Structure formats: structure tokens, C-alpha cells
Amino acid sequence: MAFYGVASNLVNYLTTQLHEETVASVRNVNNWSGAVWITPILGAYIADTYLGRYWTFTVSSLIYAMGMILLTMAVSFKFMKPTCTNGVCNKASPLQIAFFYSALYIIAIGAGGTKPNISTFGADQFDDYNPHEKKLKVSFFNWWMFSSFVGALFATLCLVYIQENLGWGLGYGIPAVGLLLSLFIFYLGTPIYRHKVRKTKSPARELFQVLIAAFNNRKLQLPDSPSELQEFDLQYYIQTGKRQVHHTPVLRCLDKAAIKDGSNNADTSNPSSSSCTVTQVEGVKLVFGMMLIWLVTLIPSTIWAQINTLFVKQGTTLDRNLGPNFQIPAASLGSFVTFSMLLSVPMYDRFFVPFMRKKTGNPRGITLLQRLGIGFAIQVIAIAIAYAVEVRRMHVISMHHVVGPKEIVPMSIFWLLPQYVLLGIADVFNAIGLLEFFYDQSPEDMQSLGTTFFTSGIGVGNFLNSFLVTMVAKITGTGGGKSWIGNNLNDSHLDYYYGFLLVISALNLGVFLWASSRYVYKKETLQALNEDCIRIDGKTMDTSPLGLQV
């Protein structure tokens, strides 16, 4: 609620209260959103290497709360906002801008420790060695995201209206108080939480260790059988509680890091060998595989960035009246993204997954990459509809000779509904799917860092959108031509920009299909000291495109 209470309507605050231009406000929103989703890389590293998830979240949440309090002060006190005289408003002073953006970026720093750790800490509460809890864990990310978007729904429906009609101070103060209350409730559960023990001192260091060892052994010959590579025996993994990851036939050059040295060929229980193990090498392979998938999530994240930027500005030009006395805030249309998600998550979890589970035998119903592919395809359809609606808006503008930047186009804002609803449905597949994919496929001791593939993809997508908006506005606005994205959207060619996004989204979907065909799923052995048998986790090495053959 706190995050979306700020993000959903920030572009309107920047243009109406700080009097920034359209392109500048879109760029600043994207840069802040990008920072919010990029900083989790640092927070996850600190959690996995030093403090653990609980304490990293604890410290970061207090920073987050401080940022919300400062932001509420920035929008509440008159001396922190520009003044207007006879309808003419001054630009914000450097001090006002500095205080406002400092509060925003303090929130971004706090988010760096909360976003990657709260979801993974929640997933840690399930015991992988307990069959019942492991089954429940399959649904965890669906319902975790569901509860998160309940807060987002309140933000886009209620807080946005309060901000525009009752005051920005109240509109930001409510989520600040709500955040403090939720943290109090979280800390009440401290005595009963499970804490996952770190089994590696520095997981990130192991990645570099494997790369260095592979480089040093680059001239050595790989053995014919993977069983001849360095690996600890099963007893070592049982005693330490670590998970053994099985060899996969990809990136064979990295296997050279696990070539046995001459002094340690016979002792497979000695962890002091100078060679890396197959499990360590496979961890690096997993990271490279996730990087490949991460790259093809950047364009979908750019599409998602439109919800709180250009979609909102587009909505402000349309007829928002609902009856004679009520006007819909443009940012409130984002609630339909949340509505469609809240309706789709239970349907997906309770109907789609059991139905597909019977058909495929997969506990998830469909593979993780299938889920992402469906979401990306729906997103392409959504941006195609956004393009078609904008073409119609431009036609109505031409028919009614709408010229001024504040003139309302005689076209209902509800024309934008389909693109919002479809993006919400797409999020059920790709947003939740990405979070689960990166958690599930990460090396065991890097699951907080692994989920930052999800958050950083959104962050880079926002930065990419900021770059695209800035460059497109600069290039198309030169030479006296009509800019694609100008301060006056009634005299711009936003339809061309949406068409551009449609083309690159379709191309990206093709690249995703190729990348998914190259991805090899993690396959690990789960063992516990109190179990008489060893079982292999069912993350099979599915190399078919999108995992279609299951």
C-alpha cells in the first residue's frame, strides 16, 4: 500500500504540484522506480552474506518508514511546496526539490532491503523436507502477491482519490501510518519465525571462485564422464544439510573448475580440495541461465512501466466524469490492473493449476517458463490494444479539433480499461512467475540474491523506459515536427510510441522462445538426517522450447 500509494500518482504530483514538464516527470518517476527495484541487489547481498534476511529486512524497513514520514512532511508543509499567485505558479526551489527527492530516495534505499527479503523470508517458513509444507509452498508466491496487491488496490482506489481531492499530506500520511502498523504486526511474530541457516560464508565469492578455477584449468582436458569430476560424497551433504545439484550438459567450459587435482582424487568427503565441486559449478551455470532469462524480461518491464506514467497522463486527457459530481482520478484506473490480478490469482491457483496438473503431471500445472511465455504473450496483446485505443483518441482529437493541453477529449477514459485488465492478467503469469522462477532456480545460499533478478529486471525496465521516453521526445521533437511525447499529449503522436513498443515487445517474445529453449532447469537431491531415503527434487532438465514436452 505504501509503495503504490506513492508510485501510482507520483507523475501527477510532479506535474501539478512541482510543475515539472511531462517528459521530465515521466523520466523522474521511472528513475525513482528503477532505483526502488535496483537497490535490492545490495540488500540481497547483505542478507545472503552478512545479516540474514530477518535483520536486513528489520533495518531496511525502519529506513523505509523514515522515508515515508519525510515524504509526508514534504507534501504537507506549505514552505516545502511552490507557491502560486493569481493562477501563476512558481517553479519548485532547489531546497524544496532536494528535500522531496531525498525522501523519495530514502524510500528506495529502504526498499533495497525489504523487497528481496520479505518474500524469500516468507518462503523460508515452509520446510522442503515436509511433503505437506512443500506442497503448500507451491502456492505461496501466488498468495503472497495476492495479498500485496490488496494493498495496491486500496492505494489506487482510495489513496489516489484522497491525494487529489482531500490533500496530498493525508494521501501520503495514511500509507505511512499503515506501514508502521504492518511492521509492528510483523515483529509480533518474531518468536515463531523460522530462520534459514546460511551454509556458505560468502555465496557470491563462490561464483568468482568457480570462474577463476575454470580459467586456470582452461588448458586441461575434461574427463569423458561427469562422474569423474570433483564432488563430495552423499554423506557430506547429509551431514552439512546442503543440497547436491546434479551435473547438466551445458556450459561445459565451466566444468573444468571441477577437474580433480592429483592430490585429492580419492577423497570425496574432504571439503578442503583446491578444486571446485560439481554442485558449485552448477550454481554458476544456474546464475548464467537466469541471466539469459533476465535479459528478455527487460522489455516486458518497460511495458509495465507505462501503467504509472504515460497511461496516467493519457487518462488525464480523456472524459473522466462519472455522473454530474464525480470525476475519476486518472491514476485510479490502475486499480483495474489490481482487480484483474485479484480475480485471476485464485482462478489460476484453484482451477487452472489442478486442471493442468492432471494433464501434465507437473506439480505446478505448467512449467515456470511456460507460465512466463503466456504472460509475455498477453502483454503483447495489451500493448497492441493500447496502440489501437491511442489511434482512436488521435482520430477523435482530429474530428473535434482539440488543440489545447488542458482540453478534454470527448472520449471516455474507460476506453483504456482493456489494456489495464490485460496487463493485470499478464502479471499473474509473468510477475508472479518470475518471482517464483528466480527463487526456485537460484543456488541454495543465494535465494535472496536470486530474487533480485526479478526486482532488478523491473528496475532496469524503468530506466530503459526513462531512456526511451527522453530520446524519443528529443529526436522526434527536432526539426519542427510533431513530437511523439510532448507536454501537450493532444498535439503529440503517442500512438507512434505505443506502436514502437508493440514491435519491440513482439520481437522480444521471439527472443524469449529461443532463450527458453536453451534453459536447463535445476535438478537437485534433497536429503535429511532423519530420512531413510533420498529423493531427487522434480525440477527436471527440460530443454524443449517453453518446456512444452513435459
UniProtKB/TrEMBL annotation:
It is found in: Membrane. SUPFAM superfamilies: MFS general substrate transporter. GO terms for molecular function: dipeptide transmembrane transporter activity; tripeptide transmembrane transporter activity. The keyword Disulfide bond does not apply. The keyword Membrane applies. Keywords: Membrane, Transmembrane, Transmembrane helix. Pfam families: PTR2. CDD domains: MFS_NPF5. It is a multi-pass membrane protein. GO terms for cellular component: membrane. Its main location: membrane. The chain crosses the membrane at residues 54-75, 95-113, 140-162, 168-189, 286-307, 327-348, 368-389, 420-439, 451-476, 496-515. PANTHER family: OLIGOPEPTIDE TRANSPORTER-RELATED. Belongs to the major facilitator superfamily. Proton-dependent oligopeptide transporter (POT/PTR) (TC 2.A.17) family. This is Nitrate transporter. It comes from Populus deltoides (Eastern poplar).
